[in-house]
Amino acid sequence: MTEAVLAGGRGDLVPSIGVPFRADTLAAFDALYAEHFVPLAAYCAGLVEDANAGTDIAQEAFTRLFARWRSVRHHRAYVYFVATNLVRHHWRTRRDERLALIELSHAGGVARGSDPSLRDLVERLPGKLRTVVLLHYYADLPVAEIARLIHRPAGTVKQRLHEARRRLQRAMEDSR
Questions:
Q1: pLDDT digits over 134-170, tens only?
Q2: CB-hemisphere CA count at 13 Å for 59?
Q3: Which of 150, 155, 103 has the alpha carbon at shortest distance from 127?
């Protein structure tokens, strides 16, 4: 990753990546990445039962470590801690989506006469927005019930519905 950056450096600042890091710092990051990325990705993949998601989570954990490299004392421990939290977030997201699908199936599926292009736009929403839209508009659940199901305050559900409507409206206007 940093060979090109390090090629001319003698411990100089490295402006080519937009951050003033010393070459020895980049070398230390590269060494940690080379040694621990594959085991971390395997750890994450085992927890989420998806190799691609595990790799994405490990990459995100290393990205967050790099952004905080100077302030982190124990780099390996930090990257595993961040990855574990990202796995937990992944689990919560998947749980919320499963609950939305269960509620949708109990409600009889997609609303009759719904526009397929609108449903496609809904499917493209981020998971947390898609979940509340499916539960509210397709499963016809009230905000309070959705809040109870996804373990979030009613205000959060309302905010997510508002954000989803705004994104859907913008997408519909862009497609015209």
A1: 888 876 778 888 888 888 899 999 999 999 999 988 8
A2: 6
A3: 150
Asked whether the beta carbons of 26 and 65 are under 8 A apart, the reply is no
112/81 Cα distance (integer angstroms) = 45
Per-residue 3-state assignment (H helix, E strand, C coil) for 56-75: HHHHHHHHHHHHCHHHCCCH
> 85-105 pLDDT, tens per residue?
898 888 888 877 777 666 666
- The kind and range of the H/E element at 97 are helix 75-106
Token pair 């508009």 is at which residue? Answer: 137
Domains of the chain and CATH, by start: 3-93 (no CATH), 107-174 (1.10.10.10)
Please give the pLDDT value at position 79. 92
